[in-house]
Amino acid sequence: MALKPGQMLQKVLVLTLFPTILDGGSAEQVQGFVTRFYIQCLGRQPDSEGLNEWVGRLLNGSKTGADVAEGFVFSEEFIGRNHSNETFVAILYRAFFNREPDATGYKAWLERLAGGMSRKSVLNGFLKSQEFAGLCNSYGIVPYAGAPTYTASTYSGYSSSGAPGFQAGRKVNFIIWGDDSASNRPGGRVSGRTDINIFVHLNLNTHKAYLVTIPRDTWFGGRKINGYHASGANAGAVRAFEQFTGAKIDFYIVTDFDGFKPLIDYFGGVDTTVEENIADSFSGCYLTPGIHHINGTQALALTRARHGRSLYGGGAYARERQSAMLLADLLLQKRPMVSS
């Protein structure tokens, strides 16, 4: 059933990103940050009271990422597990560096503990590291009190390539399309329907980015908006979306199934949050609630999953919102690669 213009705003997701400041991420980002500590440190999903308490304090700026980390590691629940030094250090690597221990570092920390260093001192070593700061930055969270912040000059190497939008005030609009074609689908790799449509407004003066999902079933010009790419290719779709949004589109990004998977794999995968049980045999996505590190094949399955979905409006709306959340996660986590 096509979505009429008057219905559209009920199902649109708007994400606001602050890629060069550390004043606190969105509620969803911060929830993901706190949830990963429940999973990595306590081995369980968060209770709503504890989750809301930590998220609220991070959002209002009264707590930092380090405060949250200390709260978990020195909690009665964590201490009561009586972890060995080996397990303790391994947990710190997974929780604060988002990776398994490297042999050299792991050995060095264990030797320090064996030599009398306290676990609090070891924890402080992790919390003041660049890796932990990078993890916090990826969620839009201040790592610790007094941590250095990023400014626009940090990214002075960025080139606009002469794009008109940048020249006219350092503001640009671009659209991200997910094309439903693939080499192993009927018709092969063609200009297919854009079942994922994400409009992005980037303001380099304020260092903010706004991501707005446009549902594929939006009715525009007497047809579903996802069909303009199939009938008019990139140029025709740009014209249609400019008319629909009333905004000049400076760039477009389009990928199909065959392009999306290697893109995610090129970046080494992505950590993303799933908030409901997903078991979609159509897309091949089977994930439980929590934070998952997924590769290209899994990311494609997740962003296609619409069967049996209940959150975010269910169905295609859930798929669209999940796709935007995944792209936001990718941007924030891989920002150092893009800025280098």
TrEMBL record:
Domain DUF4214: 69-135
Domain Cell envelope-related transcriptional attenuator: 193-328
InterPro entries associated with the record: DUF4214 (IPR025282), LytR/CpsA/Psr_CW_biosynth (IPR050922), LytR_CpsA_psr (IPR004474), PBS_linker_sf (IPR038255)
Protein name as annotated: DUF4214 domain-containing protein
